[in-house]
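Researcher: Go.
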Amino acid sequence: MSPRPVSQGLRRRSSRSGPATIAALVLLAGATTVAWAAISRLVTGTWPAFMDPARDSVSSLTWDSPAVWAAAILLGLLGLALLLAAILPGRHTTARLMGPGERDARSSEAVVSRRGLAKISAAHVDQTDGVDSSSIRASAKKVEVLVKTPLHDAGELPGDLRDSLARKLLSLGLDPVPKVVVRVRTSND
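Model: Structure:
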């Protein structure tokens, strides 16, 4: 009997395609320039004219000069940063929801996107008395709320909003429940 097919999980991590594309284009441009200069050197026997200043400054350097060591260290750190960016996973794009108790956790999964979590939080916060408008940033671990209120003294509003939103997120079944941070700006700020 063959094993049961397993689908890809819904709780994915960001692809980081933007930074990867930029790094690839920069490295491609550098490699193309070096390859063109090397082919020009092989064909004509001389380096291209635009390389004369760089060639003159590099030819005076020795292996133990501080500039060579600094360049080697910077290139090593850049390589390490690129390696870590490739190996370490990105942020989660969704937050996990607990399923009903009778379902097998390995065979089913429920998630909500960060945008969906922010919209749910904004709808809940905007229905609260004393809230004029809100701005929400949400991740799987933290929900940050910035509230504008027409009240001159916010008083207990930040704590009440934090507690109310934390209860709402708990009732949604988020696993784990994100930390809620509330900041209030009054109309006199």
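Model: The first strand starts at residue 94 and ends at 97.
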